[in-house]
Amino acid sequence: MPIYVTHLQNVKDDVICGLLKREFGTALFCYNNKIVVRSLITLKQLPGTTNLEDVVLLGHNKQIYELSFVNQLKFVLSASEDKTIRLFDLNDYTQKKVYRGHEYPVYCVDSCSNANYFISGSYDHTARLWVIDRKDSLRVFAGHTQAVTCVGTHPNCAYFATGSADKNLRLWTLEDNMPVRLFLGSKGTIYSTIFNNNGEYLISASDDKKVRVWDLVAGKELLELDTNCDLVSHLLLSNDDKILITGTNDGIIKYWNFEEIIKNEKSDNVREPISQFSVNANLVNVEHCFDTFGFLTYQSVS
After folding, report:
1. Residue 11: inside a domain, yes or no?
2. Model confidence at 220, in pLDDT bands (50, 70, 90)?
3. Mind telling me which residue stretches traverse the membrane in this protein (predicted)?
4. pLDDT at 228 > cutoff 90
5. Which of 35, 58, 67, 300 is most buried (most C-beta within 10 Å)?
């Protein structure tokens, strides 16, 4: 299976987070409280610019923890230690809005692909629902007893999930602030969660080195995968839900046959990775397009 690794060159400090968008020839990455926008194509300038240099987006005064695209590549949201989420326009590279409401650092943000809202999660133990055009949150979701460390929106944009340092996963509806499901079983902080593309399953990774698949209808754990490696920080499914990617911050990538794992959920024989390798660098982001997986990496300066 072909892979594409985009390695960030000339980075002066440790990269905290980033996004890869090969379809548009662009990568975004964050360090020193700023967002850098870079063209992936040699000698091709970014849209709306007059030179070949990176574009730097400024506004945050503390560390940026996560980015999320809005409306494909038109805008990007950023979640920060400075307690704000910010919206930047990727056409003219300006800051459009600052969203305030969280009482402590904002660790995560995720926007729905076909709706005008996004979800954030914070060290203040809450998640919040926002509409792009409004600076104040529409709804506060309380229930976790420790920091909300990851959020993920459902494909139908009517639900979202939160993972927390309290080792719990919660499924919420946008209609009210009461959780629809509480998923128990993780033995550590949950750092990543995604839905499969048809919305039947929720997948989570925690620092107990396990990846768990949860049945949304039954409201319980379906199975778990033992990664036998350091903390899985990146989860991604192929667009057809056949292949699951798990990745660690230090660049260990594993491919899992998700389709077969689901079909044979009772069998341990299919719960081993079908392929694994190292990108020999720090992993920043994973994406799937052109029927291939792409990896955004950098080399630590320390």
Report:
1. no
2. very high
3. none
4. no
5. 35
